[in-house]
Queue: 4 jobs
Job 1
Amino acid sequence: MTAPAAPAPFPSGFLIGASTAAHQIEGNNTASDWWSLENSGSALVKEPSLDAADSLHRWPDDLDLVAELGFDSYRFSIEWARIEPVPGRISAAMVQHYGRIIEGCRVRGIEPVVTLHHFTVPRWFQAAGSWTADDATERFLRYVDALRAILEPVRWAVTINEPNIAAVMSRFSTARKGDDVDAGHDLPGVPLPAPHGATTAGFIEAHHAATDLLHEQHPEMKVGWTVASQAIGSIPGGEDVAARWFDQVEGQFLRESTGDDFVGVQSYTRNVIGPDGAVRDDPEEDRTLTGWEYWPAALEQAVRDARRVVGDVPILVTENGIATDDDERRIDYTSAALAGLQRAMADGIDVRGYLHWSLLDNYEWGSYRPTFGLASWDPATFDRTAKPSARWLGAVARSPRLDPSP
Ligand code: BGC
């Protein structure tokens, strides 16, 4: 097998690094809604997260790994349930904990990309109506405000990760046995965030309010949110459904980014739509460990789709990766995805960086089986081991950059 060609040089200042999220790597996130879900006997959950990769304590190892590989950036999230485990009671110790991670990035020369909400919320917030409660935004702002001092050095902040997926997840997590989670929208196939549904509206309001607060407190910070791309295509006869599908699952969220400093684009696979919804009946289709089609070209489409909606707003690829046991496939996938990204950039699309999902194998929302990591870890000692793909992407990050245009 021949090694994939090294990508052409990226522009100077283009970030290359990796992403994680608190609940998926930290472990023992006991005050969060997901911890309750995992331990409630829900059919959605194959196994609980428990210790995860113990990044709560092992974060210096994670940052050392990022630096040692040659990455210049690291995306991670702050866990609201740790900062405010009880309504209105801020844990100063946990604020300082995340402050040390941000400072740990700085001393290692790593640009932190900080997510404030990545799928999980405090249990009390969920119980009080979550994002559909009247004062959801006010509660979110209280948490964001509590981070003011530690966010000072942060230049890239994500308010909310994938509101378009989180709005779908909320349909599931609040569903009772026998509920039709597909109800409330007029498109066939998988559940979608309802157009102007209450959760979606809650996210939109919270995003804009948090963006305003962050801009006021940190004038140099770039603030945006991230949107999951489905790289939607169609077969003949499916064009109209595909267009409506795109608008509902991506367009309505991307439109909210048009006044932002950047939009985070996250891409893994594609979805092909026919007149009756998603078409997924090819037994020969090459699937990854999540069951998604192996389709590295999705990233190129994702940034082109985003550009169509957000115009000149800069794009940051905040997630892209593959769940596989075969690390050579991860290199092949990433290499092809980067080549597509470079084609889009050569056409003038303003992309500011690429953050691979994920730095570590982690808790994939119900199971540890789909391994997305550039590094694995020992379940007993938690020692991290970089996979060849990590070294490969590190070499891409360290390779010479194009000079800035005059
Ligand atoms: C999420 C991650 C998740 C990844 C792979 C994204 O939807 O932001 O938390 O692990 O995709 O499924």
Job 2
Amino acid sequence: MKIDLHSHTTFSDGRLTPAELIQRAQTMQVDVLAITDHDTIYGLADAHAEASKHYPALTLIDGVEISTRWHSFEIHIVGLNIDTADPVLQRFLAEQQQKREERAVKIADKLAKCGFVGTLERARRYAGVGQITRAHFARVLVDNFQVPTLEKAFKLYLGKGKRAAVKAEWPDIAAAVKVIQQAGGRAVLAHPIHYDMSTKWLRRLIGEFSASGGDAAEVVFPGMNADKQAFLQSIVAEHELLASAGSDFHFPGRWTELGRCQLKSDTLTPVWHDWHLSVRQSSLKDPV
Ligand code: AMP
Ligand code: MN
Ligand code: MN
Ligand code: MN
């Protein structure tokens, strides 16, 4: 069974529409897919409509990826199996969206001081009806201002401590965990090794996430090597967190593909262990 619990659509910084993402899931033979757009659940309705029409065998998990602040770091908390009709969650996300808007204006101001004029309008055009993210500004810099790659756009301007970095007033980790859980979902620490922190800080992060009541951590995602994987799995086991896995899919590319990061662990308990997955239920007993 192929399970991918982290993916994006055009409702945040993904390049495929929800319908296109469902089609990609079918092509890649993904059986269980969570859509986890940044601070929004608006893409899920289209995805469900497409899945029920064209890929009914798919188990589509309602998800979201919430931005939080922890010390100087922006930490992403994925919510899985959330009730999208929950009013508290909806209000929480509306506030996140407001913060994204305010931050975008400030980012554009800073970019203008670097000589890049008119980035807000362009980034908004890329974002469309979706949430505006730094990834949209990165695309604007690449497409219009001779910045060679998206990575360079972050490295030179948009990344932590760089010239167009804006400290957003995100809520703390515990608030994200709480809002996810009160909406019936599980809170998952996203891509723990992507925060550019030392091992000591990483241990502290996972410890505090666990102490805040967090349910699970991603242990398989793009950009890992065997050493980091083993280290991460050992801390996750130590804190008795459940294990999640996902491709963090944004668009098809050389390094990224839907369904690519599968959990293979005999010791960790998968975050989906008690979900009623209708597809090939029996294979759940096998290591996946
Ligand atoms: P935001 O949530 O608005 O802060 O935007 C963060 C998003 O930008 C992440 O979810 C990634 O998709 C993307 N991103 C962050 N860092 C990089 C990077 N170094 N290179 C390319 N994309 C990045
Ligand atoms: Mn993203
Ligand atoms: Mn993330
Ligand atoms: Mn993501």
Job 3
Amino acid sequence: MSKVDLKKLTLHQLEIFLKQLGEPAYRAKQIFKWMYKGQTQFEKMTDLPKALIDKLDESAYISMIDVYKKYQSALDETVKYVFLLEDKNMVESVRMKYSFGVTACISSQVGCAMGCNFCASTEGGLVRNLSWWEMADEVLAIEKDSGEKVSRVVVMGSGEPLLNYDELIQFLNVLNMPIAFNMSFRRITVSTCGIVPEIYRLADEGIPITLAVSLHAPNDEIRNRLMPINRRYPILQLLDACKYYIMKTKRRITFEYALISKINDTDECAQELSSLLKNLLCHVNLIPLNPVEGKAYKRSTPAQVQRFEKILSSRGISTTIRRELGSDIEAACGQLRRSLLMR
Ligand code: SAH
């Protein structure tokens, strides 16, 4: 009989497994807790009796994602991890250090199908969805490697999380569970390119995470050029979904806006954007475009980034410019997966 990987079980499934071994349900909680402390050896789970440890060794194991490569930024404390999955696919995650703690940027898919034409993550198309436990393992491996607890998670690595909906929700629940990562939903951000029906679904889920929406343009004409998804779900439909999300969750939405020189960074764009977002409970995060090799787009000049920010702020839109981390190791927004495809 082949051994069962306990990492792939939900708490409920683990309880059933232990019941089959003739053990009470609370043992599942103990084991689950150890697993999410990064422990993979049963004999080191000090509150388990020897007889149970022997039974577990015979019938089960706990897998751990492999750190295939690690890049340390010379500019800041950012670390990019390349993880090797069981099926030999690779996926990247980024660990960022802020004054308030460690943030992990997690990938939700191997590759991406969305085709945003300024982003490297989509260049090779979608390979497959990640399972919830692979996403949890990204966080766990970062904690294990760095010896520091991850205090925030942003699902902003490669992939479109809302197209991997069920696994995403299961992952968010494990992040939140007191006996797993014990992370408040408020410390979790999920970023989407704007899958409208799934935004409604997420709003009805009743979990107070932060939703980030990759907007990148103030009108359909520009957004259609940058993001193919806009032809399916144009801006007004997207904003309606955002309004519903805000109404249901009372949470402020973050709009991400990558500033691309002469494409979406003009004064007119800033004015149009501020009219579009007026009276919406939102925050705009400006990201000076991270150049992706082989693409014609250029990042906006620092002066234009400042101007853009001023126009939005002066019109009452809460706006910040995102600090760039890890650009020397291709760990910045839009750069993930590139190094994997170039190998
Ligand atoms: N699919 C999701 C999450 C992954 S992308 C989404 O689209 O939101 C994370 C963020 O990085 C998105 O806002 C994305 O648009 C942005 N991004 C992609 N390429 C970029 C680039 N070259 N420079 C700056 N930001 C980029």
Job 4
Amino acid sequence: MGKYLITGVAGFIGSHTVANLLVNGHQVLGVDSLRTGKIDNLKSSQQDANFRFEQIDILNRSLLQATVTAYKPEVIIHLAAFVNVVESVENPDLNFSINVNGTHNVAEVARQSNVTRLVFASSAAIYGEPQSIPVSEESTLKPENPYGASKLAGESILLAYGRCYGMQIRCLRYFNVYGPRQNPDSPYSGVISIFLRQANSGEAVTVYGDGSQTRDFIFVEDVARANRIAAEKESCPCGSYNICTGQEHSILNLIDSINMEYGELPQPGFSHPRPGETMRSCGQPDKAAKFLDFQAETTLAKGLHKTIIDSS
Ligand code: UD1
């Protein structure tokens, strides 16, 4: 069984990834600055003797280096990030600091400690407005905001480390991730977490635009499994992989699916489209299927159901 280090372990995706690794018998050291991650997200993992947590900021390279040198992981799963697109527009400095300098720190620490495999949390945000659907890994990369630019820079740094120092780099481009423990409390949280909070309290949801915009919604447990597979896999090409379902759902279609779970909810309100909004997003999942043997398994209906059950 493997010995893995996860950065950003107390975040939404990190907490599901550690749970998946532990269930599969791996040993994990998780680090997190707790800037946005929550220790509470790790409640169940902390019961497991194979898990240890340390509060470490990836910007503190010397502490990270000492920790990695002492622990000697086989793989680093680098999930720690500045995650909010809108905040990245308001505070580009912090976004680039965490996502670019932080990722460089992780790459350099890995190199110094002879960790040869690294999995990186990238994002569909690096594609920007797609020219055609579905978006494949060969599509044009044209991020529209500092967050997307920083994720593209992160991929570029890590892939250069891969080529230069012979490291195995796997960049996973997540599409719209949802599921239990996603924080619904900011107006810029994922749409599913916001809609479910509103549905739960009987409030009407607000649709930005006419609701015909589409997204490729992927359940967080599928993403956690993709992270584990990418970490475990001995041989697969270095590079970037879409982590998506290949299914396009409109926001109106999402509301119908939520209605199926809750019974009839109040009629949604409609508001102006968000500026700079992407109208359609859907990933091409074939490369991950071919080289990682990864396919999303959770339908939107099943994922919504699990999210509602787990949050109640
Ligand atoms: C998502 C990601 C972002 C990533 C981007 C591109 C989240 C939270 N954000 O942004 O990190 O960079 O994809 O891949 O996952 N909506 C409503 N009503 C609401 C909230 C949202 O109608 O109350 C609509 C939005 O206008 C949008 C859609 O729902 O059309 C999805 O919004 P959101 O969940 O914020 O994700 P993206 O904007 O796609």
